[in-house]
Amino acid sequence: MILPCIKRFRDGSYLSEVYASDKNRRHTTNAIAVRVIEYALEGAAGAQPLDRLLTTILELKRAPAVIKEIERALQKEDQFEREGQEGKVLFPIRIDDFIFAGWKHHLKANVVNKHVGDFRNWGDAAAYKQVLERLIRDLWAEKKGEGGE
């Protein structure tokens, strides 16, 4: 897949475009803007020399589905609390500073009060592995009913 860099972001990821066909690419029609995060999982069995994560979420304010999911997750956590149950549903991650510095939303305090997995240093294999293991541990702990943080 060809993913030319249109704009480089401060975190090292970049803006690119994907097309449904080579014809669309040649005529630059029907492009979908994506954020590309390139990373290498050094030491991981079967890992590619360079992997890419693509997301269409370029700015949170333009992603109403994300806001809706945050609202649902917080409502579910409130329901657990009202029923006297422990339960985490929302596990936020950070790939840039937007959640803390740029996001202006009434739900911000509810989100940033949680443990926010810091994936900004994703280019460092050891740092990425450490934060990913924490996220996986929290997700599994919640699945087993042990709590997360």
Spatial shape: globular
Strand content: 15-25%
Overall helicity: 25-40%
> If strands are numbered along the chain, what order do they take across the biggest sheet?
1-2-3-4
Instruction: Count all strands and give the number.
Output: 6
Largest sheet: 4 strands, antiparallel
Query: What is the CA–CA distance across the termini?
Result: 38 Å
Protein described:
Helix content is 36%, strand content 16%. The protein is an alpha+beta fold and 149 residues long. The chain is globular, with a radius of gyration of 18 Å. The mean pLDDT is 79. The strands form 2 sheets. The chain has a 4-stranded antiparallel sheet with strand order 1-2-3-4, with no helix packed on it. Strands 5-6 form a two-stranded parallel ribbon. The longest helix is centred in the middle third of the chain and has 19 residues, at 64-82. The protein folds into 2 domains: 1-58, no CATH class; 59-149, no CATH class. The protein contains 5 helices and 6 strands.
